[in-house]
């Protein structure tokens, strides 16, 4: 009898935040520095808090806005222009539709760190930054409502996982 290789089980769906999430300590990162944003030209300010419900960590009910910023220019670039896989360039007309902003904070910001070992501590995995948007939004809501009241979420770019948002 020949041993047949069995296909791996498909991944189970990513779980929602655990019932005891508010009692767990969030893995946090304190950071002060410059963040970058490529903003649509129709928004005259770098500080646009999206309430569209279309982004990965948007509020499920658009109850609060999200400011998406990259830790470096490349993170902002790849998240904005790297969405079409295999594209090797961006047209000049497309580039003219956005403004690049550097945003400095006057104080250190506290982020829930959903990278590295922080994921397992919360009961999550890396699919938060690369998988289902509805699941990521559930987690964003739980982090937003958490008693630690962090300023935001630090996560890896889906289009270049060496970059952070």
Please give a quick description of this structure.
The chain is of the alpha+beta class. The protein has helices spanning 73-81, 92-95, 117-122, 133-145; strands at 28-31, 34-40, 98-104, 109-113, 152-154. The chain has one domain (23-154).
Overall strand count: 5
Radius of gyration: 18 Å
Mean pLDDT figure: 87
What number of domains? 1
Strand portion, in percent? 15-25%
Instruction: Give the ordered list of helices and strands.
Output: EEHHEEHHE
Distance between the termini: 52 Å
Structural class estimated from helices and strands: alpha+beta
Q: Helix count, per DSSP?
A: 4
**Within the largest sheet, what's the order of strands?**
1-4-5
Strand count, sense and barrel status of the largest sheet are: 3 strands, mixed
Poorly predicted segments? none
Q: How would you sum up the global shape? A: globular
Helix content: 10-25%
Could you walk me through the main structural features you see in this protein, from its secondary elements to its overall organization?
19% of the residues lie in helices and 16% in strands. By secondary structure, it is α+β, with helices and mostly antiparallel strands. It has one domain. The model has no long low-confidence stretch (mean pLDDT 87).
